[in-house]
Design a protein that fits this description.
The protein has 125 residues and is mainly α. It is 76% helix and 3% strand. The protein has six helices and two strands, in the order E-H-H-H-H-H-E-H. It has helices at residues 7-23, 28-34, 39-55, 64-74, 79-96, 100-124; strands at 2-3, 97-98.
Length: 125
């Protein structure tokens, strides 16, 4: 298995992950039906996002939390949705990569899922 070493590795990871997400019965509808994600625009943002998180390259500009609030207002994004997102992410990382950056990718995703689940719940109150 390979280590996550550069942006090309991030692109492989993100592409494989979102391929799963887009076909997933539990959370795919958020992307395909609710947000109607344009994958040609979304994927490059996610490459930059993960490159920023893992390598400290400030290539991502945006507010991922803010993007999720309108979706959450339309269809609640629950804790179990974030847990499922995290399980798919972890599975994809572990299927494709090993090492410190792979572990960091899972750790960062865990923090993101927990924080976003909390923020979405609070927003619905």
């Amino acid at each position: 298995m390979k280590k996550i070493e550069d942006r090309a590795d991030i692109e492989v990871l993100v592409n494989r992950f979102y391929d799963k997400v887009g076909r997933d019965e539990k959370i795919g509808f958020f992307f395909n039906d609710v947000a109607k994600v344009d994958w040609s625009q979304h994927l490059p943002k996610m490459y930059a996002f993960w490159e920023t998180l893992l390598f400290g390259q400030i290539s991502y500009k945006g507010n991922p939390m803010a993007v999720h609030f309108p979706i959450n207002a339309e269809v609640p994004i629950e804790k179990d949705h974030f847990a499922h997102w995290l399980a798919l992410w972890t599975e994809t990382v572990e299927e494709n990569f090993t090492g410190e950056m792979a572990d960091l990718a899972i750790y960062k995703a865990t923090n993101i899922a927990n924080l976003m689940a909390h923020k979405m719940e609070v927003a619905r109150r």
